[in-house]
Amino acid sequence: MDITQLILDEHAQQRALFAQIDSIDAKDTEALSALWTRLKNLLDAHAEAEERFFYPRLMKIGTGGNDAGSAAEETEDAIEDHNDIRDTGEAVDKHPVGSDAWFEAVGECNKANSDHLAEEERQGLTDFRKHATLEERHELGVRFAAFEANHLNGVTVVEKDPEAYVKQHAPG
Predict the structure, then answer these.
(1) Using only C-alpha atoms, what is the Rg of the chain?
(2) What does the pLDDT profile of the chain (172 residues) look like in tens digits?
(3) What is the distance between the alpha carbons of residues 112 and 42, in angstroms, rounded to a whole number?
(4) What is the pTM of this model?
(5) CA 75 – CA 81 distance, rounded (Å)
């Protein structure tokens, strides 16, 4: 087990669920609601698991992957992205399922998530793979997977201050 692979696998699940929602007729509100609930819970639990297990360690061992200046920069941006994904996810629930406004809100959440996934895969995950041992990636993967298994119905959504998060998890 490897936390970086678990994260990548879940990114693929997120992309697939957005695509499934896009392919369902607007009149099938039962299916849309079920898939959205599953996706929203996955997005929230995934972000929280990363914030508990992945990013604190990245802050200690990372140096900045690819076009990121530092691990702190990667992390602060990721926390901002997670907040944006949470906000756009909450906005979906303010509209009737299957309505034009609902699909537009889902699209905004998809955009926020897609932008984040691309950055995280290019920066944070690359940085982590270069600096974490295989044993550490395994141990964090176990904790990450167990947390998510215990939170299949989502987590309590809490916005985080990106700068405060980075300060809290900065090495030394």
Answers:
(1) 16
(2) 999 999 999 999 999 999 999 999 999 999 999 999 999 999 999 999 999 999 999 999 998 877 888 888 899 999 999 999 999 999 999 999 999 999 999 999 999 999 999 999 999 999 999 999 999 999 999 999 999 999 887 677 778 888 988 989 888 7
(3) 15
(4) 0.88
(5) 10
